[in-house]
């Protein structure tokens, strides 16, 4: 207690700072500084990265614009050489070609409404990206995306890509084509999308491969597919379709020279000889 005249004051002492406590406080202070410096460094890095990104983006855009302008000038010059009544056609043709070369659907917007879908379809199929079909609207967009999914689904034997196809005819075609590829592995999905159709298609493929669709009980649609397939195919390359060999000539559709006399079945039929004797 301190005595000042009549007043008595008590010294107010703060909590006593032990060495351990002081050390803890120092560490906290250091950590705060480290944190602050780290935040500042991160901010600086973020600013630099963003500035570079924007700068690169601008440069890319300028480069794209420059290429577009050059293309436009070149096409304009070429169109000058077209006959007066063909200028629209020439413009569409040259822009379509430029779009395909650049694989850029933005260029397709220059070809005119009549050719737009064709231009976008070709690029989307070429690149294999259904997203590019977004440059179209309504049915044309659907057709474009379906075509890309069909192409990619068949190329990768993917039922899930087939499932994304909206038009049922294209959807069926996709499943059937994938099923044909899988038939060799006998590997249809056990259940879910495409399972039943895949199994039916493999059964049909087997019957077609054996040329036995005429003998087996299959549905009328499958029968038609089977007959069409046999009519389109000449397995032994003797000039006669499998269907004609099975149904009309009774020759071996897997043997070009059914009677082994050195003349193939097609030659014998066309020359009026008996291919079986
Ligand atoms: Ca044949
Ligand atoms: Ca034959
Ligand atoms: Ca023969």
From the structure above, extract its key features:
277 residues; mainly alpha; two-stranded antiparallel ribbon; 2 strands; binds calcium ion
Structure, briefly:
The chain has 277 residues and is an all-alpha fold.
| Rg measurement, Å | 38 Å
Helix content: 55-70%
| Poorly predicted segments | none
Q: Secondary-structure element sequence?
A: EEHHHHHHHHHHH
Broad shape: flat
Beta-strand percent range? under 5%
Mean pLDDT across residues: 85
Number of β-strand runs: 2
- What gap, in angstroms, lies between the N and C termini? 138 Å
List the total number of helices.
11
How would you characterize the largest beta sheet?
2 strands, antiparallel
* Helix/strand/pairing category: mainly alpha
What ligands does this structure carry? calcium ion
How do the strands line up in the largest sheet? 1-2
Question: Helices and strands in order, then pairings?
Answer:
Blueprint: E1 2-4, E2 7-9, H1 19-80, H2 87-102, H3 105-108, H4 113-127, H5 138-155, H6 159-163, H7 168-183, H8 195-210, H9 220-232, H10 242-249, H11 265-270
Antiparallel strand pairs: 1-2
One calcium ion binds at residues 257-259, 261, 263-265, 268, 275.
């Amino acid at each position: 207690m301190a005595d000042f005249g009549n007043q008595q004051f008590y010294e107010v002492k703060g909590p006593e700072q032990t060495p351990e406590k002081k050390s803890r406080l120092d560490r906290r202070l250091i950590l705060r500084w480290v944190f602050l410096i780290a935040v500042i460094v991160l901010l600086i890095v973020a600013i630099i990265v963003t500035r570079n990104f924007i700068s690169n983006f601008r440069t890319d855009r300028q480069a794209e614009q420059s290429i577009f302008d050059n293309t436009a000038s070149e096409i304009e010059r070429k169109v000058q050489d077209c006959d007066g009544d063909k200028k629209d056609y020439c413009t569409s043709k040259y822009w379509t070609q430029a779009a395909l070369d650049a694989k850029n659907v933005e260029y397709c917007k220059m070809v005119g409404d009549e050719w737009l879908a064709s231009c976008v379809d070709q690029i989307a199929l070429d690149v294999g990206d259904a997203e590019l079909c977004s440059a179209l609207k309504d049915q044309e967009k659907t057709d474009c995306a379906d075509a890309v999914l069909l192409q990619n689904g068949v190329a990768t034997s993917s039922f899930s890509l087939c499932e994304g196809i909206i038009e049922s005819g294209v959807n069926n075609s996709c499943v059937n084509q994938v099923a044909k590829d899988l038939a060799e592995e006998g590997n249809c999905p056990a259940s879910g999308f495409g399972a039943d159709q895949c199994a039916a298609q493999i059964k049909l493929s087997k019957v077609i491969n054996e040329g036995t669709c005429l003998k087996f009980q299959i549905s009328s649609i499958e029968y038609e597919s089977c007959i069409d397939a046999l009519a389109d195919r000449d397995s032994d390359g003797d000039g006669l379709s499998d269907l004609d060999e099975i149904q009309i000539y009774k020759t071996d559709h897997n043997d070009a020279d059914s009677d082994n006399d050195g003349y193939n079945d097609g030659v014998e039929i066309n020359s009026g000889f008996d291919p079986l004797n």
